[in-house]
Structure formats: C-alpha cells, structure tokens
Design a protein that fits this description.
Largest sheet: none
Number of strands: 0
Length: 137
C-alpha cells in the first residue's frame, strides 16, 4: 500500500488513485531532473515502485468490476437472443410468426379487426376506391 503523505492525513483531505499516482510520477520526474528546488527524502528511491503498486492495485480493483459487468451483460444478451430466437424463427417470415402467435393466444380476431381497420383508414386516406383494402372491410 502506498502511504499517504501526512499533511493530507491530518487535514482529512481525500486523495484518489489518479491524484496520488500523478503526484508520485511528477515528483519522481522532478527528482530525476535533479531540480535544485526539490529536496530529497528517504523515500524518494521508492517513488516509481510506489506508483507502480498504486497503478496495479487500481487496475486490479477495476478489473473485478469489469469482469462482473461483462458476466451480467453476457447473461442478459443470452436471454435476449433466446427470446428473439423464440419470436423470430429462421424458417418462417416475421408476419407468419405474428399470425401464429395471435392464433395460439386467442388474439386472431383482434388482429384481424386491427388489420381491417388499418386497411380501411389507409384506403380512405389514399382514396383507393378499387383497392383490395375495401374488399375486406
């Protein structure tokens, strides 16, 4: 675990992974450049290692979340594919599937009436007097 600088602990200032990682990397870069205004401390030799540990810990924590989300998404996708497969069979057209569903669930008359109504509305809007739509209304 990367120790949090004491100034942040005493002030109860929360520090995120990215903030700490950024600070460690920047401090290590400054020390590598031999910046005269940045004094050395006893822990400076481990800055890069601390940053690496922090990066690994962050990635491990998020990897578990990603795996969990992937697993639940995979299950939901499989369920959707199963339902789609039951509704749209490859050996028949979509409208045959709808008609068969309506007949199986005693909705055939309702479906037929809706189709007739839609045909009548379509024919009247288009002023199709000799239309096939008028034959079944």
């Amino acid at each position: 675990m990367v120790p949090v600088p004491s100034i942040f602990q005493t002030a109860n200032i929360p520090i995120g992974y990215f903030q700490m990682l950024h600070a460690l990397e920047n401090l290590a870069d400054l020390l590598d450049m031999n910046c005269p205004r940045v004094p050395y401390t006893l822990r400076d030799d481990s800055l890069r290692a601390d940053a690496t540990l922090l990066r690994v810990k962050y990635l491990e924590n998020n990897e578990n979340g990603v795996k969990s989300t992937h697993s639940s998404t995979k299950k939901a996708t499989a369920t959707i594919d199963q339902i789609r497969g039951e509704f749209l069979r490859k050996d028949e057209s979509w409208w045959v599937t709808i008609l068969n569903y309506a007949v199986r669930h005693d909705k055939g008359d309702d479906l037929l009436n809706r189709i007739k109504d839609d045909l009548a509305i379509y024919a009247s809007k288009k002023k199709l007097s000799g239309s096939l739509a008028n034959k079944y209304v």
